[in-house]
Amino acid sequence: MNALDRFRAFLVLFLLFPFLVLIFYFRFSFDLSWPEFWWAFKNSFSQAILSAFFAMIFGFFVALGFFCIKKKWLRATLEILALLPNFLPTLFTLVAIFNFVDPFPSGTFGIVIVHIFIYFGLVAVLLANQIESRLGGLVEQAWVDGISRFQFYTKVFFPLMKKDLLGVFLFVLVMCFSSFSVPLVAGGGRGTTLEVLIYEKMRLSTDWGAAVFLSFIQTLIVFAISLLAYRGRGQIADRAVSFQWLRSRAGLLLLICLLSAFVLGYAQGIVDGFLQMSFFYELRFALFKQFFGTIALGLLTGLLTFVLLFCVVWAQPEAWFQNFLRSYFAPSTALTGFAFLMIGPNEGVWPWLKIPIVIVLLSLTSLFRMSWESSIQALHSQRMMGQVLGASRWQIFRQIEFPQLIGRASFLAGLAALWASGDFAISRILAHKDLSLAMMTETLLSSYRISQASILSFFVFLVGVSLFLFFIGAGRVLSRKLSL
Amino acid sequence: MSLVENLVYEYESFKLEIPIWKILDQGITVLSGDSGVGKTTIFRILIGLEKCSRLKWTFDGIDLAKLSVPEKKLGVVFQSLELFPHMTARQNILFAAEARKVSEERYEKKLKHWSETLQMKKFLDQKAGTLSGGEKQRVALVRAMISEPRMLLLDEAFSSLDEKLRQESREALKVLLKEEKIPALLITHDRQDIEALADKVSVLKEGRIVEE
Question: Are A381 and B99 an interchain contact pair (Cβ–Cβ within 8 Å)?
Answer without folding.
Answer: no
